[in-house]
Structure to design on (225 residues):
């Protein structure tokens, strides 16, 4: 399997910074995605990393270490609307566009 | 620019019945992937269609089948429904040849099997 692991739940305070970690099996790797999913809604794309390092996009940043099979999503200046599930997903290198999702981390932002 | 659309929004069926779910991809996209998302879980890959053919399949039984039409829209069919098939079914579209596979998801179809 793809063995994508991420915490199931996290809680953070409005205005703070939170880091959501994700580990995955390194074989067959073709990029690491992060999606946001609000309750009852479809996932929306946040970021994609295929090379090592940090990609910053506004309040959200994503980091990748291919050798360690590790990624994290960093959310700064948390807002109440950031309460959602954050899905880590691994791209498959098998020549197609298959993406395998983790279980998702449910983030609750509290006042 | 129309995004990914799915129909119906909600559906209630009984065990043993058959269901067809529909998806229209985002304008300009040619690839459709289907996912099943059980409550509290991440989306699980069912299969992907490109050029009207099933290109890759996840760990789902043959009761799950699909089709892609010349206009790139797609259907997901599930036969002999089981209680465990109750889930949110998501369709995602993408474009071949991109540097990476950014998938755009539709709002999903909530299927309840009684």
């Amino acid at each position: 399997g793809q063995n994508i692991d991420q915490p199931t739940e996290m809680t953070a305070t409005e205005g703070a910074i939170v880091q959501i970690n994700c580990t995955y099996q390194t074989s067959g790797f073709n990029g690491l995605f992060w999606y946001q999913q609000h309750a009852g809604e479809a996932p929306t794309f946040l970021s994609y990393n295929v090379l090592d390092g940090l990609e910053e996009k506004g309040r959200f940043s994503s980091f990748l270490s291919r050798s360690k099979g590790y990624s994290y999503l960093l959310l700064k200046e948390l807002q109440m609307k950031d309460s959602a599930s954050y899905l880590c997903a691994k791209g498959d290198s098998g020549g197609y566009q298959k993406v395998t999702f983790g279980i998702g981390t449910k983030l609750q932002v509290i006042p | 620019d129309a995004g990914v659309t799915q129909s119906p929004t909600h559906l209630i069926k009984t065990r043993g019945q058959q269901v067809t779910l529909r998806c229209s991809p985002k304008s300009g996209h040619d690839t459709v992937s289907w996912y099943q998302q059980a409550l509290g879980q991440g989306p699980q890959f069912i299969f992907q269609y490109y050029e009207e053919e099933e290109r890759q399949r996840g760990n789902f039984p043959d009761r799950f089948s699909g089709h892609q039409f010349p206009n790139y829209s797609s259907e997901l069919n599930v036969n002999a429904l089981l209680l465990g098939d109750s889930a949110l079914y998501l369709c995602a579209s993408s474009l071949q040849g991109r540097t990476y596979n950014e998938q755009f998801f539709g709002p999903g179809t909530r299927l309840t099997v009684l």
Notes: The radius of gyration of chain B is 13 Å. Chain B touches chain A at residues 4, 31, 33, 35, 40-45, 48, 50, 55-56, 58, 90, 94, 96, 100-108 (CB under 8 Å). The first strand of chain B starts at residue 5 and ends at 7. Chain B has a mean pLDDT of 93.
